[in-house]
C-alpha cells in the first residue's frame, strides 16, 4: 500500500489528524446520545435539539469561503490551532445554557471553530503534505475517524450518566485544550510545498477546463449523500427506537455503525490508487437504498435491523471517502482546496437541514417518513454518480482502470 511507503512526516500528520478529528467529530455528536435530556432540561422539542447541530453546520458552511484565504495564506496548521481555541468557549456556553438562546449560541461558536478544524482543514493539511498522494492519505485518516461514534456515543452516555450533559461539555472543552491544541502546536508539521520525485517543487500544468455542469453534479452528489449520512447518523438511535428496539438495543446497534464504516473504508484504502472516488461511490452508493428498503419492509425484526446496520454502515463508510475524494478526479492539487471550499457551503447546509428535518419526519410520520426521503436522495445519488463516471477526465479514467 502506497501510504505505508510514505515518509515519517506524512505518517506523523496522519497520527495527529486521526486523534484530533476523532475527538472533534466525536464530541459534537452530543445530541445524538443526550438529545432527550437536553430537550427536557432546556424545554426544547427533539427536532429543536437537533437544530443545534444544524446551526453548527450552517455556521461552518458560511465560514468556509472566508477560511479558504486563511488556509492559503497561513497554512492548515495555524488555522486549525485558532479553530481549536475558538471551539472551547462553545462547550462552555453550552454548559451555562438555561434557555434556547444560549444553547444555539454555543453551536454557533462550535461551528466557527469546526469550520477551521473539521474535515476540510484536515484534507487541506494532508494535501499540503502528501500532494498527489492525498487520496490514499484521506482514506487512511478515515479508517480511524470513522470510529468517532463507536467511541464517543458510549463515552457520552457514560459521562452524562456520571456528570450530566453539562459536565460532559466541560470534559470535552478540556480535551480540546489538553489534547488537540498541543498536537497542532507542537506535533503537526508546518506547511511545506509538495515536491516531485526529483525534489523540485511541483508546478502543475494548467488543468483542462472542467465544465460548470460537471462541478454542479459533483456538488449535488456530495450534498445529497451528506444529507443522508449526517441525518441518519444524528437520528439513528431514535430511528431504531421507532422501529421497536429497546433503548439499550438501539444504543448497541448504533455503536456498531462506526466499526462497520471503518471496515468499509478499509476496503477502499486497500484498493490504493486503483479506485477513484467515483468508483468507490458507485459501489457504496448502491448499498444505501437496499438497506433502507429492507428496514422499511422488515417491521422492526432484529435480524433485519442487523442487516440494515451492516449494509448502511458499509455503504455510508465508503461514501464518506468518496465525498472527500471525488473532487480529486476532476481537480489537481492547486485547485483542490478551492473546490473543497466551494463545496463546503452547500455540503454543510445540507448537513444542517438534515437532522432536524429527519427528526421532524420521524416524530410526525414515524420511521417510514425519514427513511422514505433518504431513500429518494440515495437513489438520485447513484444516478448522478453514473453521469459523473461518463465525464471523467482522460487521465483520471486511465488511473481508475
From TrEMBL:
Alphabetized PROSITE patterns for the sequence: MFS
GO molecular function: transmembrane transporter activity
Residue ranges occupied by any Major facilitator superfamily (MFS) profile domain in the UniProt entry: 13-393
Bilayer-crossing regions: 12-34, 46-67, 79-97, 103-126, 138-164, 170-187, 215-237, 279-297, 303-331, 343-363, 369-388
Keywords: Membrane, Transmembrane, Transmembrane helix
InterPro entries registered for this protein in UniProt: MFS (IPR011701), MFS_dom (IPR020846), MFS_trans_sf (IPR036259), Proton-linked_MCT (IPR050327)
Domain of life: Bacteria
Alphabetized PANTHER family for the sequence: MONOCARBOXYLATE MFS PERMEASE (PTHR11360:SF290), MONOCARBOXYLATE TRANSPORTER (PTHR11360)
Protein name as it appears in the record: MFS transporter
Organism: Bradyrhizobium rifense
Amino acid at each position: 500500500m502506497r501510504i505505508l511507503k510514505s515518509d515519517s512526516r506524512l505518517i506523523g500528520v496522519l497520527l495527529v489528524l486521526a486523534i484530533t478529528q476523532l475527538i472533534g467529530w466525536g464530541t459534537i455528536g452530543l445530541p445524538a446520545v443526550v438529545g432527550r435530556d437536553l430537550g427536557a432540561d432546556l424545554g426544547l422539542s427533539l427536532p429543536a435539539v437537533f437544530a443545534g447541530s444544524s446551526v453548527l453546520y450552517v455556521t461552518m458552511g458560511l465560514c468556509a469561503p472566508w477560511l479558504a484565504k486563511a488556509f492559503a495564506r497561513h497554512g492548515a496548521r495555524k488555522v486549525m490551532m485558532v479553530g481549536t481555541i475558538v471551539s472551547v468557549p462553545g462547550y462552555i456556553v453550552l454548559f451555562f445554557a438555561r434557555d434556547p438562546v444560549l444553547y444555539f449560541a454555543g453551536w454557533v461558536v462550535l461551528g466557527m471553530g469546526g469550520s477551521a478544524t473539521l474535515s476540510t482543514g484536515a484534507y487541506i493539511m494532508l494535501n499540503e503534505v502528501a500532494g498527489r498522494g492525498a487520496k490514499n492519505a484521506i482514506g487512511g485518516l478515515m479508517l480511524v475517524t470513522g470510529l468517532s461514534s463507536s467511541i464517543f456515543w458510549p463515552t457520552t452516555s457514560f459521562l452524562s450518566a456520571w456528570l450530566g450533559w453539562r459536565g460532559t461539555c466541560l470534559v470535552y472543552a478540556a480535551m480540546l485544550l489538553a489534547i488537540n491544541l498541543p498536537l497542532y502546536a507542537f506535533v503537526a508539521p508546518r506547511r511545506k510545498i509538495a515536491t516531485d520525485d526529483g525534489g523540485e517543487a511541483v508546478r502543475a500544468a494548467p488543468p483542462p477546463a472542467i465544465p460548470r455542469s460537471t462541478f454542479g453534479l459533483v456538488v449535488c452528489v456530495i450534498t445529497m449523500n451528506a444529507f443522508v449520512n449526517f441525518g441518519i447518523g444524528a437520528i439513528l438511535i431514535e430511528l431504531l427506537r421507532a422501529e421497536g428496539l429497546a433503548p439499550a438495543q438501539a444504543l448497541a446497534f448504533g455503536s456498531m455503525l462506526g466499526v462497520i464504516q471503518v471496515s468499509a473504508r478499509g476496503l477502499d484504502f486497500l484498493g490504493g490508487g486503483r479506485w477513484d472516488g467515483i468508483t468507490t461511490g458507485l459501489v457504496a452508493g448502491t448499498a444505501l437504498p437496499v438497506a433502507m428498503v429492507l428496514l422499511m419492509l422488515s417491521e422492526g425484526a432484529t435480524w433485519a435491523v442487523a442487516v440494515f446496520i451492516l449494509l448502511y454502515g458499509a455503504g455510508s463508510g465508503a461514501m464518506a471517502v468518496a465525498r472527500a475524494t471525488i473532487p480529486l478526479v476532476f481537480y489537481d492539487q492547486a485547485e483542490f482546496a478551492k473546490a473543497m471550499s466551494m463545496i463546503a457551503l452547500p455540503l454543510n447546509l445540507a448537513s444542517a437541514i438534515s437532522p432536524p428535518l429527519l427528526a421532524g419526519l420521524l416524530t410526525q410520520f414515524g420511521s417510514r417518513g425519514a427513511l422514505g426521503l433518504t431513500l429518494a436522495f440515495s437513489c438520485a445519488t447513484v444516478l448522478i454518480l453514473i453521469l459523473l463516471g461518463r465525464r471523467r477526465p482522460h487521465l483520471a479514467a486511465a488511473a481508475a482502470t
